């Protein structure tokens, strides 16, 4: 379709030909001739101009101005989209399904309010690896379901920054605020060995349950089965509090010589007490090893003091029970493989004469030697 001419400018011959072709196509769809279609279209425009309280020429000029502005807007968006594709910048869906480049900058207050509310909801997030960092990942359908819940309606009535959500369309529009403000972006699973020569072929790869290694997709579409990752970390007051506490602790240790004498003496006694506990622990470990070594030969299978001391259990469970016997490991009976022996017994004798008899005799004697009875017995010998 040819671009509409600017207001006040005559269309070029190419534009005139394109408009005539379009008129002919529209007339053919309605079963009219081009002249009848133009007459019908003029009557429609006159009726709309009359409703708007304008003359026919004024209304036509207004339509031309609107068409020219829409065309310019589409050209600008197409140029921005092409530039974003060349630079690899993420794009989000705007109104009408058009791709809108995401511009970095300060996030929208509405988007921040939506992200803060969604972070407090149970979206069944899972941990993933994005650029070597652990991030929380969730599915779009859970976020859309949360935005359409009564809890969000109640929160939006109290917080004016939360956009109202009435149906699935408004929920999608509200969710689009997150990628547009770089608070959450669409990701997909990627191969961590991509680009390496040792990577296995794609068909041989199997999905391993655990952490996903993901990458950011350029097209920030919205669908129920797509995954998004949180880039919004929420308020950082906890991290600031921990950093402040660590700084105060380091300064207190550095300024230890300036402490009052009573505090320094108290720290000395405390450190001696901790060293005593560590020494008692090592002494107990040595004693329990000696006790087990003695009881292993005296009263097998051996006695352990605090048998769960070095097990992977909690602190208090390490000292329960106080004593216990050594658990005997069940000896697995190994089954003898007789396939080779049976295969050797089933071999056919060689066709050479003399050797066949010797081999059969040797086999018979070997079988007799194997099956002979080794119990002592008394034989009667006849006198000559």
Q: In a few lines, what is going on in this structure?
A:
The chain is α+β, with helices and mostly antiparallel strands and about 375 residues long. Helices cover about 50% and strands about 10% of the residues.
Largest sheet: 5 strands, mixed, barrel
The strands making up the biggest β-sheet line up spatially as 3-4-8-5-6
State the helix count.
12
Class of secondary structure makeup: alpha+beta
Mean pLDDT over the full residue set: 77
Counting DSSP E segments of at least 2 residues, the number of strands comes to 10
Shape: elongated
Which regions have little confidence, pLDDT < 50, spanning 5+ residues?
204-208, 331-339, 346-375
Helix content: 40-55%
Distance between the termini: 132 Å
Name the beta content range.
Answer: 5-15%
Protein traits:
alpha+beta; 384 residues
Provide structural commentary.
This protein is of the alpha+beta class and 384 residues long. It is built from 12 helices and 10 strands. α5 (140-147) crosses α7. The protein is elongated, with a radius of gyration of 43 Å.
Give me the secondary-structure topology.
Blueprint: H1 13-29, H2 34-52, H3 56-87, E1 91-93, E2 99-101, H4 109-119, E3 126-130, E4 133-139, H5 140-147, H6 150-158, H7 168-175, H8 177-180, E5 184-189, E6 212-216, E7 219-220, E8 227-230, H9 237-254, H10 261-298, E9 303-305, E10 323-325, H11 339-345, H12 355-371
Parallel strand pairs: 1-7, 3-6
Antiparallel strand pairs: 1-2, 3-4, 4-8, 5-6, 5-8, 9-10
Helix pairs in contact: 1-2, 2-3, 5-7
